[in-house]
Amino acid sequence: MFRIRNHLFLINILPAFFFASACAPLLTPTPFRPPTRPAATQILSTTTPIPALYTAISTPTITPTLSGPCFNSLDFIDDITIEDYTTVLPGVSLDKQWLINNNGTCNWNSTYHLKWVGGNPLGAVQDQIMYPARAGTQVTLHILFIAPALEGTYESAWQAYDPDGIAFGDIIFMKIIVSP
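and the corresponding structure tokens:
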């Protein structure tokens, strides 16, 4: 019985699909039409003047005025770490930091140095590259020291030098007391 129904379905329904598709319009391809160039826009003359959208303003050119070469200066401001006469243990590492001001007109770069000029170098490299600083700015300088093994009071003094080897500015220093 099931087979008879399947055959009846095929006999009755299938021809209806064929007839319906025969009534559908035929598809025809759409021909390609290349784009056309738009017509040029013409500006129409008017009797009313068109106001300007902006007014051109000349901007002055700023040229720096240099009255000669720059000058170097260093002002000591404050001890950031290790106040003067701080007591430390023998052989301890010390990270001394000073807040200073580049109050000259030269910008400092890696050609500027701090050099040991007096007292005890306290194990530090005696020629230190300075931290770069633009003119008129504050900067922190720091040197790593090692406290001596013997008890006593120690001082280490340092001076800034420009690329030509000329000393300038305040001398910065550290004073410590070594005691067990």
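(Above: one complete record from the training split.) The first strand starts at residue 75 and ends at 79.
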